[in-house]
Structure formats: structure tokens, C-alpha cells
Design goal:
Layout: E1 15-19, H1 24-35, E2 39-43, H2 47-61, E3 65-67, H3 75-88, E4 94-97, H4 112-132, H5 134-141, E5 147-152, H6 166-186, E6 191-198, H7 204-209, H8 221-225, H9 236-247, E7 258-261
Parallel strand pairs: 1-2, 1-4, 2-3, 4-5, 5-6, 6-7
């Protein structure tokens, strides 16, 4: 028997939705998918920003990147996004649940709004968007390749964080466990679930935490990376490469896992 390794890492021709795709890790994954021949929809809360990112990614990487703005912290926004996508596509090969929020405050002053906002976006939004998109994912799973869902968690859901982001860490731990629950119920329907737990990447969210004020360009990410076992922060190639692997034939036998993409923070502790 001769094994066929042709197109082992290909996602050419697949259709993907990346939530929180207008910046940060979501934008990095969307760019990687486009560069490998996928058609990509991105969603974020701010319509103008979402549209501008979609246009820029299409021009930079070629292919088709389409903006579908929605507020995924609310069920109405989840339902709107699912309906928008269903109006465009009969199936969805890849769903990346990346949209997320964080909140930092000292333990004694941590507010209910900081708990609810983060849980609503990071956990409730992930579950209900996946639920609403099941018809499109099931349709894709009937093809030659299973449908894929990647939930973006965090190493803060695996280990304690240096930041006072209590609801964030708890929400990401919930995302990791939810991934296994969904895999238990849907793998036999050829919808494969995995989670990625990113470490430090040059994103708006980390920038606010390390004192860069949300800036991602022109700031000293090398200094932030010095404390990482790999001596750097992550790049778009790092996070997109892992996502592409999980969505390709090469990753088809990886199911229900939470994979840290962090330069060794978790693995060397």
C-alpha cells in the first residue's frame, strides 16, 4: 500500500468563519486561511473596523474575505450572525470561535459586570453560535472532509495569570472543557472540535495588560518576549499554522484536545 501525502496540509477551497476576526489572533488566523486558498468570513462588533479589515486582508492575501459584523455577547447578535452566514452559504467547513473579552480589577473590587460581560462573550457566545451554525457544519461534514470547530481558549485557562482577570481565566477554562463536551456529542457527526490555548501574542488585549495602551505597532514586544521560554512573543505564522494544521487532512485525527501555542509557558513550567 502506498500512502498519499499529497495536499496533506491543504485547506484550499474550504469556507471558514473567524469570529473576532478584525484584529489580533482572529485576524492572524483569517490571514493564514486566506493565504492557503480558503474563503473567509470575519465577524466583529464594530462594523466599520470589520469591513476595513476584510478589505485589507482580501487585497493583501487574495481570495475572498467578507465582513459579517455582530455582537456575540448577546444572543440576538449570535442569531444575526448565523442568519447572515446562512444567507451566503449552504455549508461551513471551519468555525473559529475567537471573539472574546477580558476584564481586570482587584479581587476585592471585581464587579459583576466584569464577570457577566466576559462569560457572556467567551462562553455563552461560543456555545450558542456553534449551536446555531450546526446545520451548516453538519452539511459540510457530509463531504469528503469533516467540518472543524476551533475554540480559542488561553493559557490563562490552564494556569494562573499574573493579571487580575478572574473571569477571563475562568471563562477560558470553561471553553477548554466545553470543547471536549462538544467533541463527545458531535465527532460521530463528522464535526471535529479542538481548542487552541494561546500564550503571549502581539494583540490589543495583551497590549493593554502590559502597559502599551492597546498599541500593537511601534512598541517593545521583544521585552515582553524575554520572559517566555522561547524568548519571544508569538507570530501570525505560529497561530495560523496550528489552525491550518487542525483544519487540514493532517489534523483530522486530532479531536477534543486543547493545544497550548505559547512558546513553552505551560509545557516547561
Amino acid at each position: 500500500m502506498t500512502d498519499n501525502f499529497k495536499n496533506l496540509f491543504s485547506i484550499q477551497g474550504k469556507t471558514a468563519l473567524v469570529t473576532g476576526g478584525s484584529r489580533g489572533i482572529g485576524e492572524m488566523i483569517a490571514a493564514g486561511f486566506l493565504s492557503q486558498g480558503a474563503k473567509v468570513y470575519i465577524s466583529s462588533r464594530k462594523a466599520d473596523t470589520c469591513q476595513a479589515t476584510a478589505e485589507r486582508l482580501s487585497q493583501t492575501y487574495g481570495g475572498e474575505c467578507i465582513a459579517l459584523p455582530a455582537d456575540l455577547s448577546k444572543l440576538s447578535g449570535v442569531e444575526s450572525l448565523a442568519a447572515q452566514l446562512a444567507a451566503h452559504e449552504a455549508k461551513l467547513d471551519i468555525l473559529v470561535n475567537n471573539a472574546g473579552a477580558s476584564w481586570g480589577a482587584p479581587l476585592d473590587q471585581f464587579p459583576e459586570v466584569g464577570w457577566d460581560k466576559v462569560m457572556d462573550t467567551n462562553v455563552k457566545g461560543v456555545f450558542f453560535l456553534t449551536q446555531k451554525l450546526l446545520p451548516l457544519l453538519r452539511a459540510a461534514g457530509q463531504g469528503a472532509s469533516p467540518a472543524r470547530v476551533i475554540n480559542i481558549g488561553s493559557i490563562d485557562g490552564i494556569k494562573s495569570s499574573a493579571f487580575d482577570a478572574f473571569s477571563y481565566g475562568a471563562s477560558k477554562a470553561a471553553v477548554h472543557h466545553l470543547t471536549r463536551f462538544m467533541a463527545t456529542h458531535l465527532t460521530k457527526e463528522r464535526i471535529l472540535f479542538n481548542a487552541i490555548a494561546p500564550g503571549p501574542f502581539p494583540t490589543w488585549m495583551l497590549s493593554t495588560g502590559v502597559g502599551f495602551g492597546g498599541e500593537t505597532e511601534g512598541v517593545d514586544w521583544d521585552k515582553v518576549g524575554q520572559s517566555n521560554p522561547s524568548g519571544r512573543v508569538g507570530t501570525a505564522q505560529d497561530i495560523a499554522g496550528l489552525a491550518i494544521f487542525l483544519c487540514s487532512r493532517a489534523g483530522e485525527y486530532v479531536v477534543g484536545q486543547t493545544i497550548a501555542c505559547d512558546g513553552g509557558v505551560v509545557g516547561t513550567a
